[in-house]
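Structure (tokenized):
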């Protein structure tokens, strides 16, 4: 049986990771995070279907960083917007698509922000 987690429960689990403490940042991955975030903001400025761009900035307690973009529940993207989103997704290390509180969220993972 699959358990349904609320966004608050997921955030709490993510913040509980007490075993990791970053000491040596991976500048390539931090630059990638900043680039993906800027690209998501550009997409939001270009696409009326985007409701929000947000994320968890790199923290010393987290090995990975997370960004997300929220769309209307029945978002229609044109060819240019689709290409922009596909390019952004290809830059990241992982993606989750979910339905949250009346909108669709695409969460993008940038892994290994910290080398140590």
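Design, position by position:
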């Amino acid at each position: 049986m699959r358990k349904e987690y609320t966004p608050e429960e997921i955030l709490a689990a993510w913040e509980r990771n007490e075993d990791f403490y970053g000491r040596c940042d991976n500048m390539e991955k931090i630059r990638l995070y900043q680039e993906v975030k800027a690209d998501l903001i550009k997409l939001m400025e270009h696409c009326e279907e985007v409701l929000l761009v947000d994320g968890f900035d790199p923290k010393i307690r987290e090995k990975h960083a997370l960004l997300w973009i929220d769309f209307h529940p029945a978002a229609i993207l044109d060819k240019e917007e689709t290409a922009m989103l596909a390019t952004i997704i290809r830059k990241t290390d992982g993606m989750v698509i979910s339905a949250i509180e009346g909108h669709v969220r695409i969460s993008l993972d940038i892994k290994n922000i910290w080398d140590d």
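Reviewer-requested clarification: The chain is about 35% helix and 25% strand. The two ends are 36 Å apart (CA to CA).
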